[in-house]
Design a protein that fits this description.
231 residues, Spore Coat Polysaccharide Biosynthesis Protein SpsA, Chain A, globular
């Protein structure tokens, strides 16, 4: 069984680094749109299970639209703790492979997800870097508890070092669709340029008063009631 976890904090307080560029309602709408883009790609990748780690009822409702399951922590302790919570759940479920991606990588494609899953190999954790090379935007572990994960820049180099310290042979897997995490004002223009056909790209293009360019790799939402296949 292949499981992918997507940690998402509450939408109201999402994307604080975009305060200078977007108002509260815009940040909330963007966070929701990016999550839908990510979950659309995951649903199309047809993994065994997709888990969204959250305590936000709105996020839970979005997850269910895409056939994902919501995992609720006792309290919101941040990205690293949310991933660890999902890793433990994946181990209890006897998952063979554990993936994790953030909810703010709207350019991700089903092909990216499938490539990340295929790369998973025991003893060789896989890490997909952010475009800055400092963050970690994709992880594949076999088994799920192969090593602890700690997020926050410079998590990418830290993950490689931590894997080697445990006698593992980490692999770097650059994936274009996972590279752009939308955190800073400059990322908004990059999003519109890279993925104009995504829900997020269209939303930001509308705010900027520009028209999306030729259709890109957008992800169609599944029909209502569609569910991710289970093993």
């Amino acid at each position: 069984m292949i499981v992918c976890a997507v940690p998402v904090k509450d939408l109201v307080n999402a994307k604080q680094r975009l305060v200078a560029a977007l108002g509260p309602a815009e940040r909330r709408a963007l966070a929701a749109a990016m999550l839908r883009d990510v979950l659309g790609a995951l649903a199309a990748a047809r993994l065994d299970r997709v888990w969204v780690v959250t305590r936000d009822p709105e996020v839970t409702a979005i997850a269910r639209e895409f056939g994902a399951e919501a995992l609720a922590e006792a309290e919101n302790r941040g990205h690293t703790a949310a991933v660890a919570f999902a890793q433990a759940a994946a181990s209890r479920a006897a998952a063979r492979v554990f993936l994790t991606v953030p909810g703010d990588v709207p350019c991700v494609t089903p092909a990216d997800i499938r490539e990340l899953a295929r790369a998973a190999c025991e003893g060789e954790p896989v890490f997909a870097p952010s475009r800055s090379g400092l963050g970690t935007n994709g992880v594949a572990l076999a088994p799920p508890g192969a090593m602890p994960l700690t997020f926050g820049e410079p998590s990418f180099e830290n993950h490689l070092a931590a894997a080697r310290a445990r006698g593992l042979a980490p692999r770097v897997l650059p994936l274009r669709g996972l590279a752009l995490d939308v955190d800073a004002p400059d990322d908004l223009a990059a999003l519109v340029a890279a993925a104009p056909a995504t829900e997020s790209g269209r939303l930001v293009a509308g705010w900027r008063g520009t028209e999306p360019r030729a259709p890109g790799a957008g992800h169609p939402r599944p029909e209502p009631g569609a569910r991710t296949p289970r093993s």
